[in-house]
Amino acid sequence: MSTTEQQQQNILDTQSTGKVFLRYLIPSLVGMVLMAVNIVVDGIMVGNKLGAAALAGVNISGPVYTIFVAMSILIGIGGATLYSQSMGASNPDRARFIFTHSVTLILLFTIVVGGIAFLFHGQLVYLLGANAETAPFASDYMNVFLTLGFIFTLENALSIFIRNDGNPTLAMLALIVTAVSNVIFNFVILYVLELGIREIAFGTIAAAFLGLLVLGTHFFKKSSNLKLQKFRFDKKLFILTLTFGFPSFLAELGISVFTIAHNIVFSRLAGTEGVAAFSIVNYVHGIMLLLFLGMGSAIQPLVSYYHGGQKHDRKRETVRIATWTAIGTGAAFTMIGQIAAAPIVNIFGDFSADIQNMATSGIRIFFIAYLVMGINFIMMTYFQSIGKVKMAAWITAGREIFFLLIFLSILPALFGIQAAWLAVPISEFVMLITIIIYVKRQGHYFGKQGTIL
Q1: pTM of this prediction?
Q2: CA angle, corner 129, sides to 128 and 135, nearest 5?
Q3: Which sequence ranges are marked TM in the entry (predicted)?
Q4: pLDDT over 90 (residue 326)
Q5: What span, in angstroms and rounded, lies between the C-alpha atoms of 337 and 372?
Q6: Boundaries of every domain in the chain
Q7: Would you give the DSSP letter of residue 451?
Q8: Sign (positive/negative) of CA torsion 92, 98, 99, 101?
Q9: 235-308 and 403-415 helices cross at what angle (nearest 10)?
Q10: Which of 151, 267, 338, 422 is most exposed by smallest CB count within 10 Å?
């Protein structure tokens, strides 16, 4: 083992758990917050410059981007978890092989899937919830991602591995470059060149490519353990990688289910105005998703490393600190939603009163979910990182697909369109109850006195 590898392991082993957590949390949150701001600014620019139909069209095509990210996460998180476990067990050679295996498969998967989907893009747009008014915008945006989405998947995968290789700061810098350049590109495209949705998509791809170049500098560092080896397909490793990454894949897939299901419900009950109102809420919701994802990204390398090294006290303490952080963050943003819903909606454009009222009510109701959503994210990441894949998958599938679809089908039918906003909060609270029951039964206690927290 090299001196640099030993130093990295000593930091994780000898620094206080709180300091190590902050060392990974702060870069992760800064990067994710900037990406969230980037997403919101995109929505503000499109909504103000091109109008409600264009904003709805971008939102409708969003699941294509999400599915590409999901594929990169399926293999990226699965491979990175095994990578960190190997590093924790002092086996860097095995870790390098896992890295090579994962990155090669990610590129192959996304290029093939993107090519196949592009052949059926006409049908796909309407399947995602478009109508005659929104389909041209959705199609223009989606087709760019189907052909060039592999740039996103590679950037996302490398960011995950670099974070697991002990360089969360560089992963943060890459996100900063991507976010800032995307805002600049989109401003120039919309307000200087006065182009449209297709060019916005190309600008977003170009920004991701710049982020990829930043990540590439990690491979020139002496501290890097990420060295590409000769690729050799390993069926056993492939299955294990998919198994460990499956909960995160489900989480991303769940975002697509969430978006598509809400688009369909609001389109059916309120037309383009309903989809536009949901698009506003969904843009703001993206901030919280990325914040909680940042917390999960911070603990995943640590929990995986400590689990591989049999350091169970540090593992439990990391989860406890992260959970309380998520609770505080969720409570703060729930309060912001109640107080500032109307001003938040107004920054996305001058919409009709119906859109403004629907979106304002949506934010106030929807934001209640954040009281517990962060806890569910943290617990999913914990179980995934220690190999309890079935429980991690249940948390994801239950809250984002199973319970969500049940409540989204029942509530609007019984109580009207405003009740659709309650589907996510109720799903999150129901899922937390199942987690508490499981934790108590299995004895996964994280508090110092044998308590859950």
Answers
A1: 0.74
A2: 90
A3: 21-44, 64-83, 95-121, 141-162, 169-193, 199-216, 237-260, 280-303, 324-349, 361-379, 391-414, 420-439
A4: yes
A5: 15
A6: 18-442
A7: S
A8: positive
A9: 90
A10: 338
